[in-house]
Every structure is written in structure tokens, then in C-alpha cells.
Amino acid sequence: MTGALQLEQRFRRAADALGYLAVSVPLALAGVVVLCALALGALLSLVVVCVPLLTTAASAARSLVSADRRAANRLLAAQLPPVAPAEEPPPGPALERARAVLADRSLWRVAAHLALKPLIVAAVLLAAL
How far apart are CA 112 and CA 34, in angstroms? Predict the structure, then answer.
């Protein structure tokens, strides 16, 4: 009877989904921190000192989304493509570099992913209760 229901396969997939959820919680929490740093860096990018904060937060955001996609591909057998590489900011004044970082469209998709991730994780955890 267990062969017809494929219980072993279903339990394995449920364990993988639970593992992905366990990995998603710390990634979502780190994503909130990185998203706040990205917003702070964007707001303060007029101050030349805060441009490194903006570029570092953008790099950290891409790294977190890459880690989330790798976890989904490995644990859920998803086939998510890698995150688009960042456009190289032009050499020159700090304001030009900040403008180039903020104009990168893939960064905004990464930021949207980081903004939605905690909401999705919280919804799944609430549904599981």
C-alpha cells in the first residue's frame, strides 16, 4: 500500500520543504537588515561618505538572494536562474557611482525579493500553525 501512495517520496519532499523553510527564516531576517542598509544608503547617498554603504548593501543584497536561490534549487528541486550580475559603476565622482547603483534594474528586483521574503516566510509559518 505504501508503494501506491509513494509515502517515502512524499516524506522526503516534505522534509526538503521543511529544510528550505528553516534556511529561509535566517535569510529573511538578514534580508530585512540588508534592505534597511540599502534604503539608508540610498537616502544618504548625497553624502559622499555613505556611497560605500550603498554599494556594500547592494552587494550583500545580491549575495542573500543568490543564497536563497541556491537553497531553493537544491532543496526544492527548483530551477531558478542565478541573479543577474551587477552593472559595474562608472569610475568618477561618488554621486555618479551612487546614481549608477540605484539605476540598476536588477538591484530593484533583488530589493523586492528581500522585501517580500519575510512576509512570505511569516505567512507560511502562520499557515503551518
Answer: 12
The identity of residue 32, as a single letter, is V
Place of cell 556611497: 51
Burial 77-105 (b: 16+ CB within 10 A, else e): eeeeeebeebeebeeeebeebbebbeebe
CA gap 63, 66 in Å, rounded: 5
Contact assessment for residue 100 and residue 87, using Cβ atoms and an 8 Å cutoff: yes
C-alpha cell, 70:
541556491
Distance from C-alpha of 98 to C-alpha of 94, rounded to nearest angstrom = 6
What does pTM read for this prediction?
Answer: 0.83
Q: Give me the tens of pLDDT residue by residue for the chain, a chain 129 residues long.
A: 556 778 888 899 888 888 998 999 999 999 999 999 999 988 888 777 778 888 899 999 999 999 999 999 999 989 999 988 887 877 888 788 888 888 899 999 999 999 999 999 899 888 877
